[in-house]
Amino acid sequence: MPLTQKSRMVLLSIFKGEPHARCKFDWTAFNKAMIELGFHSIERDGVVFRYRVPAQWGGGTLVLHMDHKVEKSEQNSLKTCLFHAFGWNKEMLLDGLLV
To answer: Which residues are registered as beta bridge partners of 61?
Structure first.
């Protein structure tokens, strides 16, 4: 299933590097985008979010330790995590390769 425009924009915002390019981060919208990519939210415990990773992204579990309120600068940690775990980057989103 292709990403909805809103989910694509949520993920694209994380990968933008310009100082004022990022939007206000919303965990609900991020979770929806991850579900659209085939991830399954399996647990949420305070600031720990766990996802079951689909086979196309290597399988296993993704664990994110994030505050409830993610400041724009803190999105760098999430960007780095997603890049190291799956190779995701801005170009993949712009080219529509994340589906």
So the answer is: 52
Neighbouring CB atoms inside 10 A of 78's CB total: 17
* Non-local CB neighbours of 45 within 8 Å, separated by 6+ positions: none
CA–CA dist 71, 94 (Å, integer): 23
Q: What is the rounded CA–CA span in Å between residue 62 and residue 77?
A: 14
Tokens of 68: 């409830």
State the CB neighbour count (10 A cutoff) for residue 67: 11
Tokens of 97: 């390769």
- pLDDT tens digit string along 20-70? 666 777 888 888 999 999 999 886 777 788 899 999 889 999 988 776 666
In this predicted structure, what is the pLDDT of residue 17? 62
Return the SS3 of 4: coil
With a CB cutoff of 8 Å and minimum separation 6, the contacts of 20 are none
